[in-house]
Every structure is written in structure tokens, then in C-alpha cells.
Amino acid sequence: MRMLPIALKSLRARWVSLIGAFTALALGVAMTTVMLLGLATAMALPADETVVSLVAALGTAGGVSAFVSAFVVASTFSYTVAQRRRELGLLRLAGATRAQVRRTVLAEALVLGVVASAVGCVLGRLAAPRMVRWLADVGMAPPDLTLGQRSWPLHAAFWTGLLVALAGAAVAARRAGRLGPLDALRTADLDTGVMTAGRWFWGLGLLLTAAALIGKALVTDPADLLHRKTYTVQPMVLISACGLLAPVLARPLLRAFAWLPARWTSYAGRLVRENASTALRRTGAVAAPVLVSVALTGSLAGALDTVSAARTAEARSRTAADFVAVPHTASPDALAAALRAVPGVTVSPSAPTELSVVEADGTVVRSEARTADDPAALATTARLPVLKGSVSALDDDGIVLPEEWGQTTVGAPVRVVRADGSRATLRVAAVLRDGLGDNGLYVTARNAPGARVDRIEIRLTATADATTPDLLRAAAHRFGGTVATREEWLAATAPAASRVAWLRTVLVLGLALTYTGIALANTLVMATADRRRELALLRLAGATRAQVIRLVTTESLLVVAVGSALGCAVAAVQLGTMHAGLALLGAGAPLVVPWRPLGLVTGACVLIAAPSAALAAAWALRRRPVAAAAR
Prior knowledge:
By secondary structure, the protein is α+β, with helices and mostly antiparallel strands. It has a domain at about 1-190. It has 22 helices and 11 strands. α3 runs antiparallel to α13 (about 280-315). The radius of gyration is 31 Å and the shape is elongated.
């Protein structure tokens, strides 16, 4: 039996349902192409701090884009093949072998994948200049950045798209080839055997892998959980596990969410629940884009907020000063002297400076440092997490540094490069526990040439009285400075996610969320178009056209709720893991949930799903019920 002509004819006959897989793949390849073209352009620039940051952001965005497109395309192709069990059963009855059925499905995926990948590359090449201009407009890239002419991103995106199409179809084709002719016909309208041995193996395997990675990080290096690479990659493993285990996880969620509607309505709620519960492949395909979008949004946005909250909590716990003076004149030393003259206070001026530590292999690592004019006063006004040594022992030949620098022996020599380029060898006066915020290097003013005092921390002593705050403010006013209480200063300088960090998140999530929104609408239209006979039978059973449309729309919203719940579960695991890591690091930060981004993304999914399902149902009901049911 010649299978290629059959495959081509099947593509022409089933274009309505296959257009969904085509659209998902083409847009996924386009998204990957845009990111790879941007990455190739950035990698060609002369290396500096901005370019390194840009390459890292585009690399992360490219990886997330590739994952999202692969996840959605694989789910869509799997559902597309599952829709054709009746057709494949007829092929088996006509004499086709199992291998021939598999080759037919793979031939269709190959033709569809080649065309869709080519279209995606063209779309991505057209859209890439817009992304490059956006990067320059927001300051993430040089203003004169232009798109390069390298071709490897187009090849990489094309072959990745084709590989994803074949991989997504191969699993379903293998499952379809195992069915006998009569079995295929008998179970064509039922989703039985969805959880195959392979699906159980990979789903549970990925779940255990995620658990192992989390456990290892918590035991060995909790700080690694706060790195962008970790909190970007880890949710992908959990999302993949949830996607594979969706048939098991979705059924109890469907019944829970539909419990009240089923009790409050005479038949509609029960019918919606049973439709979604029995068609688990369709439910999984529709829920997949929602799961990805909600999980990534909650994980990435929540990670930024969590780290920001942790930095704020750390700054609060490590600030022992009662007041902070901010100099606004060119003579901060005079201001510091005036404040010291106020009875009942301990004054600790400090200034920011750059200090590079020379490691044993000669590598120079730049870091932010602060000066301490009076180490004893610094030890009083700041609660530094000292592991070894004493901050009070700091002098012109000493340095206080965090544990992460690897030199944890008090008195050991450390080679440094000062802000003016001069080199010196200092001894370790104290070692601090690693943290999240400004608790890095401390030196005296002698080792910080050109540094200017930007804050003066003040702590009241036992001899202070009610007039001391007024005296401090009066002294600061004479020299053009201001004095704020500890709470006022912390509120004004609370660490927050930087603009660059948020722009990176927008870059990573922007195209991915746009793609998942289109994929959600596309999958709903594809799935509803294939239900013409089912909807026609409902019409023949007495349901009005409006009732059927409401039924399909409600079912789509129920599936969106399931996808959102699974996405929130992934985000909750990710954020809970970060919170546990912070607790092990000694940062008592609150658990931050990004309710607003989660609500916006879920609301957007609802606004996309409802009209898409309603319009697709109306289109499927355009024929007379008797004619549609006879097909």
C-alpha cells in the first residue's frame, strides 16, 4: 500500500483540524527564530558588561521560547493524531500494517513540519528587527544595534521545529499503530488508555528529577535556588511532569471545580463535567498553554519579588542604627564631626567604593565595597553576620569579606585592586556569612581612594535623651544634610528588583505568553471543529443552538481553570523552594505570591478561551444537525 499519497490526501481532507498543529508549529518556530537571531546579533558585539547581560537575557529567553513551543506543539500534535483513531482504524481494516500506519502519520508530520517550519523562519526573520529595536529603545542593547545577517539561527530554528513535529507525532503514531482494527473503531470516541507505561515512566521520572534537584540544592547550596538559571529551568521540569501526568491530575480537579455547577444546574453542569473528564486528551491539549503561561509567570515574577523581599528583610535585620544622615554638601566630613559632637550617639560614616579581589589563579573579580572610618562604630551600628574574626579588628591593613570569596582564615593575606588601580595585600580581619544584599567587602578609607561618604549611620547610646533627635537634625541642617529614622531610611532605600531584571523577565515572558495565548485559541478552535457530530447530536436531543454554545464555552472555562490550578501548583512549588532556601540562608523573608501577574495571565486566558470556544462552536453548528450527525 502506497502511504505517501494517502498521507497527502489526508492532509488535504483534514486541513481544518491540522491547521491547528500547523499554526502552533509555525508560530513556535517564529518565536525561536526571533530569539536566536537576537542572540546571534548580541554575540557579535564587542564584549562588555552590557553585552554579557544582553547575551544572558537572550539566551534565557531563547531557551524558554524553545521549551514553550516544544511543549505546546508536542501536545497539539499528540491530540491531532489522537483525533484520527477512527480513520486509522479504517486504514487497518483496509489492510494497512501497523508500520504503514506509523509511516503515514510520520509522513504527514514531515510534510506539515517542513512547511510550518519554513513559514515560521520567514515570520521570525521579519519580526526580529522589531525586537532588536525594542532592546535598543529600553536600554538593554546599544542604540545603534542592527540585526546581523547570520544564517545559523534560521537553520537551528527550522530543524528544531521539524524535530519537534516528528517527535510529537512519533509517540502518538506508535500508540495508534499498536491498535487493532476493531479496537480502533470501537474506542474511537473514548479516551481510554491515555496513561501509557511510557507516560507514567517519564512523568514520574521528571517529577522525581525535580524533587532530587530541589533536595540537593537545599542540602548543598541553598543560594543556588536564587540564581536566575535555576528558577528559570526548574519550573520547566515541573511543567513537563505536570503535562505528562495531566490525565491523572486533571480528573479530580475537573470534578472539584464542577461540583457546585453540577449541583446547581439540572443537567448542564454534569454534562460539562463528564465531557471534560472523558475527553482527557482534548482537556490536556487545551490546558497545556494555560499551564505553561501561568506556571512561568508565577515562577519568574514571583522569583523576582521573593528575592527583592528577601533583600529588604535582610537590610532591615542588619541595620542597627536608630537614625541615618544623608549628606548633601561637598563636606560630609564636617557633617560627621558635627553629629559626633551631639551627646549620646555613636556615629559611623561609610562610603561606596569598588574593590577587586585577585584570586589564587590571578583572576580579578570586581565587587562593591564600603568603607569604615571607625570599625568599632560600624560594629555598633550594623548587625553584620560575622562567622570568624571581629569587625572591630579592621584597620588600614585589613579587610572584611564574605565567605563566598573562599578565604575564610582570619589573618590570611588577600590581594586586592583599589578603585584607582593600585594594588595592595590586606589581611582578613573578619569573615561574614554569605547573604543577599550589601554585606560584601569592608575596608578603611585609606583603601578607598576617591570614595565619598553617602550615608552616616547613628545609634543612640544610654546617655541619649528626648532632645537628641532634634539636636541631630539641627546639626545636619547646618551642613545641608538630612536625618531620617531607621524606618524612613529603610523605606526609601528598600532593595527592589532592578529595571534590567524586570526587562529580562518581560523579554523572557513576552513572546512566550503571546504565543501561548495564540496557541490556546488555536487549540480550542481545532478541538471544537472536530466535535461537529457530537454537537449536532446535542441539537437533535433537544438542546438549542445557544445552549450548545454555552455548554462548549463553559467547558473551555473549566479546562482553563484546571490548567491555571496546575500552573499555580508549579509556581507554588518553585516559590516554596526558594522560601525554604532563604530560610536556610538565614534570610527571614516572607513568602511572596505574585497575585497580580497570576490574575492578569489567568484572566487573559479566560478572555481568549471564552470567545474562541463560542465562535468555534457557532461555526461547527452552521450545518443542519441531521446532516452534521450523519457524517
